[in-house]
User: Fold CUB and sushi domain-containing protein 2 from Ilyodon furcidens.
Amino acid sequence: MLLLSLHFLVFHTEEVHDVLRIWDGPQDGGVLLRELSGSALPPDAHSTFNTITLQFTTDFFTSKQGFALQFSVSTATSCNDPGMPTNGTRSGDSREPGDHVVFQCDPGYILQGVNRITCTEINGRFFWQPDPPTCTAPCGGNLTGPSGLILSPDYPEPYPHGRECDWRVTVTQDYVILLSFNHFSLEPSYDFLHIYDGPDSLSPLLGSFYGTDVPDRIESSSNTLFMAFRSDASLSSNGFVLQYTENPRESCFEPGLLRNGTRVGTDLKLGFTVTYHCESGYTLEGDPTLTCIMGGDGKPSWNKPKPMCIAPCGGQYSGLEGVVLSPGYPGNYTSSRTCLYSVAVPKDYVVFSQFAFFQTALNDIVEVYDGPTQHSRVLSSLSGAHTGI
Ligand SMILES: [Ca+2]
Assistant:
């Protein structure tokens, strides 16, 4: 059977009010393919019947340029490209009659429709049955399992007005829940996320959050948390992405890794320690060892802040090999500083130095001296950008 493809050259109508509708087949008995308005150029549309129907409706106000489109005819021998769902993935590329493809949603999204669709041929017409599914961020739900994502309804689109969404999170008995905020933006003072320390809204309120300040991580005192999202009748925002993980009772939260460093210690229970080490060329600032102790709020917490690995401004270097980094590396160095690095090796060795990566502004200079102080002979004076000198 012959089928039709539409390709848009121009599209510009008044958003919502002046609408172009496209049916695959006749208006009665066909399939509504698109409802288009606004100024975004629509992607190509393909029929599965040998006719396409277009209806353009305009209101009494505001006229724009309208549309220009080309149509072309081809012979159907397989199904159309079923596309990739927003917030999901598809496995399978075959499009012959009898073939199927399978859809899966990204974490936090639920699938609307059926995850497996089949290419079907009836009287020379090729189409997917049923229609491809969509992936949406749901309004509330019961969540179980050791970890997961909670998204505001319709995320990453702005959340809808006038919604009441309730989530109940339940993890393994004798575990507690750690809730961290990856993204947070609600209309200040009118849209809220209330979080309760227990199975429902009668449990103690841990906090009511709104605005764009990302809240600190939250820990439950039992294995359930209840979350209530409320939006009012106007003004929306991008919403939130929360991650929950279960954690053994009487344990500190996962302290994470260190930029330019490594960690020793994986047991996070009360009384245990983790110790950080910096990579070559970096100096550890702070205390390398953290101990999990009982905090003043009756919850376990680390006794010290996490240290940092920084590239120092100058210093004494010795040993048979090592790395010297500009201050703040890999970030930019700060202005108006002089950093003196002294590199000494055992007698009977000479120092061989090689720059792996080198970049300064034209007025910033690295001078290399042959000897213990800056009064020794200058070996080289470098600025600009170089590699492997
Ligand atoms: Ca609102």
Observations:
- The two ends are 67 Å apart (CA to CA).
